[in-house]
Every structure is written in structure tokens, then in C-alpha cells.
Write a structure and sequence with these properties.
8-stranded antiparallel beta sheet; 3% helix; mainly beta; single chain
Length: 677
């Protein structure tokens, strides 16, 4: 889903009334001027480039190393429609082969490759400039520094911007905003003009070549200091207590036991740590939801605690080697030994139980990030007055921090202990009090309540309204309720469709529905998404971008890249979704490959894709492997991959639409064409 952002007053846009645009064709979609460009690059060798009036061609740097200066390459944007700039950054070996490697001692310098913005006018001292652009690298994260130049390869000063280092993450478009006030340093104390921005883009590690892409470039000059855009977050909230105290989202995590052998543990939103009577070990169990008899909070999660007692006995006072010790009269020395027990008789140990001896875990699918907004709203009461406190756990029993989540009292003071009475008390943590996730909770998925501060038997009752996080920080993985084993689907050629039956029982269970009868009423908002990466995805959207939305009630075609295609437009690998259910728990997925499109699968070749069923913004994902029938037959024998069952009794028209026996005309059944009259 798209995230909506509002840019408030003060944003500088290219060509607006706040300043003058100094870049020509910043979106790269217009025609380039002959013999001049706003975009230059140096030190990627270009075959056939000779000295020209524009200054392009071979150059010799002040250190004697030869290089190349040329217009930057404007290419078809590989990530969306339109064009962008591609800058190839050579590693040291590649630069050595070209004779262009520049060194500072033993260090391969970051200015070995430079990308330039050549402004259409020089900027005088005292003026402000604002840079906006997007940069992307698919292979690595990195950074680049900005320099002031008189013209491309005409250095004046090594630092330009107020925040001069520009970092970028890999695999995404990074939006850049920088400002600079032109000083005498940038104009070499007035002896030169400032008219070009240089970015040092080479990697000092110099171990691998990579490509950088630039788009939507703007440099605006103004008299007044520009203000960085303020972004208002209108993305909303995602509540992981989807059904309040009845929330039972399945959460899997790997637990390491005392022998450090990993085992997969399944938990849900509300868990308790209790002692197993047989083994004496602490185990996790799902917390009980009980009726309270209260009209306002008829149900609550019940968290019980026990009394404890101690016994003190006399034992021999042995030395470190286990030998008896004696007094002066030859009597064996004795000492007191105290053991603590729970009220059920199980042993606690030689120390009184700590506050964390009874814990209640509230877990979500969301992994918390330091500084992000959150809301935790719950009501609590107990059989007798008490107090509780909190911890942060990665997942239940995996401690990370204590006194993590605090509440703010009427005087505005943060409190780490929560008073509990016999009457319902409401606590609102996080955003309502202007608080965010503390650094100690980074990476956590569990808010843990220590319920043994009172150190006696009690019953606590929690009624949760929400545990919400800002939608912009919630990933698709956070909202995925289940992922079954991989499915292997055979791709059929030409007009030989085969219906493949996909078991939806896991999805139905995760969404707590029984069959597909709801698909026809149109009110549940059920959609089907394919999540394989398209060739040219739109930029600046979350990972759900790799999807097409099809109403279940219509069915339809998607190609393997996730694009919707018309029924009569069969020019590649496509997935057809049949909205009719089979015995209420299965659907049909048909896969074609049109050989005329030039796409084929040799034995062993596969294409990975995913089908995600979305309901109310929550997902259930099927991992799909497409391949030839022969390859799929081989994969069917591999553990963890199952071949979906073909249903050869189904009938289709030539458009790939499923029909029944009443249909008149040319049809396909069991892979054979025939005419139904």
C-alpha cells in the first residue's frame, strides 16, 4: 500500500518561486543540448572520445595520472519508466587496466571517479544553493562527498555542503536534500567562479566495481537560507492486538535450550512462563482468557501468581573440597540452609523469588525499532492491590532490557512501576505521552510484564485495546500470518493449460475462516497479490509494490513479474487465478508459457515467485517455484517442496477462462482441444 506524505510550507521545489533552477533537464526526460550538459563524469574510460571544444576527452590530472572526462551516460531507467543517469565506478584492478588509477600513498582515492553537476550559471558568494536528487546502487551501500568546482575537473574546495557526506542504502532510491552557502573558499577567494558540484563516488576499498544511478536532480539558488522539507507522517497505525484479548497471531521463533540445540517454538500474542510439574523446568503456555463479569471489560487475559514459602534446616558446613569441618571440641560444624518453594511444592532455589519469577509476555509480529512511535493501551486490575514492571524481550524469555516501557503520571514524571488496584486502571504508553521505543527495546518483539513484585499469590487481569506501531515502520513480514512450504507449479506451453489445485487450508486457518463462501459477497476486501519483482517497479514504495491486485470475484491473469494482463494478451509466463473454490478449501492456479514470447524453461531452470493472499491488510504467503514439468517432477521429491495436484477434469475456453459443460464452442480439457455443442 502506498504511504502518503505531506510536504509542509518551506519546501523548495525545482523552478518554484523561492529560487532559480540551475540544472537543465533534471528529470532526464527532455532532449539533451548538443555540445553541453548539466551532467558529467570523469575516469570511466570511453572508447573513441577525443578532445573537443566542450573539454571532453582524455585529461591529465595534477598528479600526472591520465583520466577521461565526458558527458554522463543517460540510460533507460532499469527501475521504472523513463530515463536516469548511470555512472560506472571502477575498482582498482579495472582502473589499473585503463591506466587511470589514482592513489594517495597506498589508498585508492574516492575522487578516482567523480560525477559532476555543471550549473547553467555561476553562483556568487553569499548565495545559497539547495540540492535535491535521488541516488541508487543495487550492489552495495556507500557514501560520497561533495566538492566545489569551477567547472568539471576544475577543483576549488573539498567541502561544499553543510552536511557534506551523502550516504545511500543499497537496493532503493535514496532521496537527497542538502544546502550550502557559497563562500570565498568555494570561489578560491574570488579568483575563480563556482559553477560545478563534484561528487567523489569511488570506493576506498576498491575491491569491486559497481554502478550508481541518479535521477530527479535539482539545484536551486536563492538569497535566503533554505529550510529542509518537513515531512508529516500520515501513514496511520497498525494495531497488532487485532482482536484485543482474543488476538492469537502465530509467531515462530528459534529457541536455544540448555544444550544450545535450536528448536522452533510457536507462540501467540499472550503467553505465560510457568513451571512444568514433571520436569521442574520453566515452559511457555498460552495465557487464558476469562470472563470477568464486568460490562465494560467482559473478557480479560488472566495472569496468576503463587505464594511461596521457605524451609531452613541444619546441614554440615563442608569445606571447598567437601570435607567435614570440626570445632575445638571435635564436633562437626553445622550451618543453616534455606530452600524456597512455590506453594505447589516445586523448588525455587536458595534465594527468594525475584520480581521476574512470574512473567506475562505480550508479543507481536513487529520487530521494534529504536525511536519509532508506538501505542500500548491496556486496562488492568487484580484481586488485591499490587504493582508490576516491564522488560523488553526479543521474544518470550529472551531478555534484553528491564524497566523499558514506562508510564507518565499526572505530574508528567515517568514511572517504571505500575500501580494495580482491585478496580480497572487504564494505562496509555508511548505516543499519547510523546514517548517512542527506547533504544533498549530495538529488535524486540515482546513487551514483558514482571508480575511478582508483590511476591505473593494474586490474579492479574489485562484487557488490551491496542499495541500499535506507525504504518511506515511495519513491513510485509510483520503482517504475514503464515507461510506454508514451497509449492512447485509446472508451466505449460502454448494453449495447453492445466489446472493446479492449491491447498488453502493453512490460509483459512490463519484468517480464521472456514471456506470461500465470503468471496462472492464483495465486502471482505479480499485481494490476491503476486510478489515477484517486476522489471521496472515504481520507485519510493514499500515492498508491496511488487504486486498486482485482482478482485477474487473476477479472477484474472498476472504475468510472472506481477503485472496485470488482459485475458487475450498471453505473451509470457502468466498465472491465472480461478475464484471458484474446490470443496471449500482449495483454489485453482493455472500457469502458461507462450513459446512465441521466447521464454522457455530448460530442465532444472526455475523462476521464483510468491502468491500472497491479503485480508484486511494482513497476508498469507505461498512461495512459488515455476518450471518445466520435468523439473517440477524432480523438485517434488525434495523435502519441503510439494507439487500441487493437477485437476484434469476442468474445462477452459481459448481465453483461459474456466467454463462448464454448458459452454458452446472450442474448449480445452485435459490438454486437448475439442468443440462443445
Amino acid at each position: 500500500m502506498k504511504k502518503l506524505f505531506t510536504l509542509l510550507v518551506g519546501v523548495l521545489l525545482a523552478g518554484n518561486a523561492f529560487g532559480q533552477e540551475l540544472i537543465i533537464n533534471g528529470d532526464l526526460e527532455g532532449e539533451q543540448q548538443a555540445g553541453w550538459s548539466s551532467f558529467w563524469v570523469q575516469d570511466t574510460k570511453a572508447e573513441g572520445v577525443t578532445d573537443e571544444a566542450t573539454g571532453q576527452g582524455q585529461i591529465t590530472h595534477s598528479d600526472g595520472v591520465k583520466g577521461w572526462l565526458q558527458f554522463a551516460d543517460i540510460v533507460q531507467n532499469p527501475f521504472k519508466a523513463g530515463k536516469c543517469i548511470k555512472v560506472h565506478v571502477a575498482d582498482k584492478a579495472e582502473s589499473d587496466a585503463m591506466g587511470t588509477a589514482r592513489m594517495d600513498g597506498s589508498t585508492y582515492v574516492s575522487w578516482n571517479t567523480q560525477f559532476y553537476l555543471y550549473l547553467k550559471e555561476a553562483v556568487p558568494e553569499g548565495k545559497w544553493i539547495t540540492l535535491q536528487m535521488k541516488v541508487r546502487c543495487e550492489d552495495r551501500e556507500g557514501s560520497m562527498d561533495g566538492q566545489a568546482h569551477e567547472k568539471p575537473n576544475g577543483y576549488t574546495h573539498y567541502t561544499l555542503f553543510t552536511n557534506n557526506t551523502i550516504s545511500y542504502e543499497k537496493g532503493k532510491w535514496n532521496k537527497i536534500w542538502r544546502k550550502a552557502q557559497i563562500s570565498s573558499s568555494h570561489t578560491a577567494s574570488g579568483s575563480k567562479l563556482f559553477q560545478a558540484i563534484a561528487f567523489n563516488v569511488a570506493s576506498s576499498s576498491a575491491t569491486e566495481s559497481f554502478d550508481l544511478y541518479f535521477d530527479d536532480i535539482s539545484v536551486v539558488v536563492s538569497d535566503d537560507e533554505p529550510q529542509e522539507p518537513v515531512i508529516e507522517d500520515n501513514s496511520g497505525w497498525v494495531n497488532f492486538m487485532r482482536k484485543g484479548v482474543f488476538s492469537e497471531d502465530p509467531i515462530d521463533f528459534v529457541n536455544y535450550g540448555s544444550d544450545e540445540e535450536p528448536n522452533m517454538v510457536k507462540v501467540s500474542n499472550f503467553m505465560l512462563q510457568v513451571r512444568d510439574q514433571e520436569t521442574g523446568q520453566n515452559i511457555l503456555k498460552k495465557a487464558d482468557v476469562v470472563e470477568t463479569g464486568d460490562a465494560d471489560h467482559p473478557y480479560a487475559v488472566k495472569v496468576p501468581t503463587q505464594d511461596h514459602y521457605s524451609q531452613t534446616v541444619q546441614i554440615k558446613d563442608l569445606d571447598a573440597d567437601g570435607n567435614e569441618q570440626f570445632d575445638e571440641e571435635g564436633n562437626v560444624l553445622m550451618k543453616d540452609s534455606t530452600t524456597y518453594y512455590w506453594s505447589d511444592g516445586s523448588v525455587i532455589g536458595t534465594s527468594a523469588p525475584a520480581r521476574y519469577s512470574s512473567q506475562f509476555f505480550v508479543s507481536t509480529l513487529h520487530k521494534m525499532k529504536a525511536g519509532e512511535k508506538y501505542k500500548l493501551v491496556f486496562w488492568i486490575k487484580a484481586d488485591k492491590d499490587a504493582k508490576i514492571a516491564t522488560q523488553a524481550h526479543t521474544l518470550p524469555t529472551k531478555y534484553k532490557d528491564y524497566n523499558t516501557f514506562k508510564w507518565v503520571d499526572g505530574s508528567g514524571t515517568e514511572q517504571s512501576e505500575f500501580p494495580v488496584t482491585t478496580e480497572w486502571t487504564k494505562f496509555e504508553l508511548g505516543d499519547p505521552q510523546g514517548k517512542t521505543i527506547p533504544s533498549g527495546a530495538a529488535g524486540c518483539q515482546t513487551i514483558t510484564f514482571d508480575t511478582y513484585l508483590l511476591q505473593e499469590a494474586n490474579n492479574y487481569y489485562f484487557a488490551f485495546e491496542e499495541c500499535s506501531f506507525s504504518e511506515k515502520n511495519v513491513t510485509m513480514a510483520d503482517r504475514t500470518l503464515g507461510t506454508p512450504e514451497d509449492l512447485a507449479l509446472p508451466v505449460n506451453t502454448g494453449d495447453d493449460p492445466k489446472a493446479t489445485t492449491v491447498d488453502m487450508a493453512g490460509m483459512l486457518e490463519a484468517f480464521e475462516i472456514e471456506d470461500f463462501s465470503f468471496l462472492n459477497n464483495g465486502k471482505d476486501g479480499i485481494t490476491l497479490l503476486t510478489l515477484s519483482k517486476p522489471e521496472n517497479p515504481e520507485e519510493d514504495e514499500p515492498e508491496e509494490i511488487f504486486s498486482s491486485v485482482l478482485p477474487w470475484t473476477d479472477g484474472g491473469f498476472l504475468n510472472a513479474q506481477g503485472y496485470f494482463v488482459d485475458l487475450d494478451f498471453m505473451d509470457g509466463i502468466q498465472i491465472y487465478l480461478d475464484d471458484e473454490s474446490i470443496d471449500g478449501s482449495k483454489i485453482n492456479v493455472n500457469v502458461w508459457n507462450n513459446p512465441d514470447s521466447g521464454i522457455s524453461f530448460a530442465n532444472g531452470e526455475t523462476l521464483k515467485s510468491r502468491l500472497a493472499i491479503s485480508m484486511g491488510g494482513w497476508y498469507y504467503i505461498y512461495n512459488i517455484t515455476l518450471g518445466s514439468q520435468e523439473t517440477i517432477d524432480q523438485l517434488a521429491g525434495i523435502k519441503g517442496v510439494k507439487q500441487a495436484k493437477a485437476d484434469n477434469g476442468l474445462i477452459y475456453n481459448l481465453a483461459g477462462q474456466r467454463v462448464d459443460a454448458s459452454y458452446k464452442g472450442l474448449v480445452i480439457k485435459n490438454g486437448q482441444k475439442s468443440i462443445q455443442k
